[in-house]
Amino acid sequence: MEAILALEDGRIFRGRMFGAEKEVAAEVVFNTSMAGYQEVLTDPSYCGQMVVMTYPLIGNYGINPEDYESERPYLSAFIIKELSGIPSNWRSTETLDAFLKRHGVVGLQGLDTRALTRHIREKGAQRAVISNDVSNPQALVEKAKQAPEMVGRDLVKEVTCEQPYLWEEGDWDLHKGYTRFERKAGTKPYFVVALDLGIKYNILRRLTQTGCRVTVVPATTKAEEILKLQPDGVFLSNGPGDPSAVTYAIDTVRALIGRVPIFGICLGHQILNLALGGSTYKLRFGHHGGNQPIMDSETRKVEITSQNHGFAVDAATTQSDVEIISLNLNDQTVEGIRHKTLPVFSVQYHPEAAPGPQDSSYLFERFVQMMKQAS
After folding, report:
1. In this structure, are residues 160 and 197 in contact, taking their beta carbons and an 8 Å threshold?
2. If we measure between CA atoms, which residue out of 96, 93, 55, 89 comes closest to residue 73?
3. Are strands 169-173 and 177-180 parallel, antiparallel or unpaired?
4. pLDDT > 90 in the chain, percent
């Protein structure tokens, strides 16, 4: 079915709709990953956004439930150059088209994704509308201008869990499937409370694989409620939207600082920075993909990281008791911070995704060591 992607600045792209057939409005961003489209689809951090994949052929290995990063896709639309109609993978259980239909997510293929990506790089991420009503493109442009802006928007409440739950799943094994949490002989299983701002399953798997016992709690959970659980550490997850709009989580983290070790990733990194007195700002087109180089400020070691965020920590506003521990080599944005005296640190990138493939996974061990020293 013919469809139109209309950007708020008036640029029009024509393609063919697949997946759910409906009109949708959201911010459009691009992702440079060459694989992992299923993880992109189910990452809650994409809530409120349309995602353009720069790699041209998508859907070639199908969909399988073992690789979900959350219970369902949260993104508004999925935009690709070419849809593979015949998946080839022994783990596949359905096609990409069937998956999007089942979850009511719009797909758009057949447009010039290279031109669209270059336009976003030059003009910045912007609001857009996808519609199968192609009779009046200018009317769709006007609809795009009326879509909600990302700045000031709290999307965490749309993706966080409703009730606390225990997480015990570990890494995936070729012969056994997903492993379960097991206490390692002679070791203490540190108890971690994970604040769900839009958490990815693989983060939880890495925590359990590192020997942690994990309970996930809603983003609105108060600091007093978390401390009553007597955790050895608190983890702040990734998530969507503007971090400065998630005031309740900022208040919670501010009350936890100095009382328990804290580790944050992505939105959790931004929330922690805000709780420490810094500020954040919206990036021009964000960082979305598995090929982002960062450098450790102390060791000068370069790591290749997976990232998905549209906001960043403002380096000029970091307080005197906070130090920047890593920077993005592409644009020098802040990629990691830590408190100079308290057991608190965070990173902007995703060490659990590890496209290196293991460059940054040591950060989970660092968190465990921090809890060990604090106890």
Report:
1. yes
2. 96
3. antiparallel
4. 91
- Whole-angstrom Cα Rg for the chain: 20
Residues linked to residue 338 through DSSP beta bridges, in sequence order: 323, 345
What is the spatial distance between Cα 245 and Cα 271, in angstroms, rounded to a whole number?
Answer: 10
361 CB-contact burial (10 Å; exposed 0-12 / middle 13-18 / buried 19+): middle
266 is catalytic: yes
Residue 206, H or E segment = helix 201-209
With H, G, I as helix, E, B as strand and everything else as coil, classify residue 2.
Answer: strand
**SS3 category, 6:** strand
Asked if 350 contacts 266 with a C-beta cutoff of 8 angstroms, the reply is: yes
Model-level pTM? 0.96
- 131-153 pLDDT tens trace: 999 999 999 999 999 999 999 99
Residue that has been written with the tokens 């349309």 in this structure: 50
Query: What confidence tier does 353 reach under pLDDT thresholds 50, 70, 90?
Result: confident
Nearest residue to 268 (alpha-carbon basis) of 179, 172, 346, 210: 346
Concatenated DSSP letters of 272-306: HHHHTT--EEEEEEEEEEEEEEEEETTT--EEEEE
The answer to whether the CB of 262 falls within 8 A of the CB of 290 is no
Q: What tokens does 210 get?
A: 């590192």
Find residue 280's DSSP bridge partners. Answer: 313
> Is 352 one of the catalytic residues?
yes
Catalytic residue among 266, 287, 303, 335: 266
| Each residue's pLDDT tens digit, 224-257 | 999 999 999 999 999 999 999 999 999 999 999 9
Q: Which two tokens stand for residue 79?
A: 């935009």
Place of tokens 């501010």: 254
103 is catalytic: no
H or E element, residue 216: strand 213-218
Among 8, 27, 39, 352, the one annotated catalytic:
352
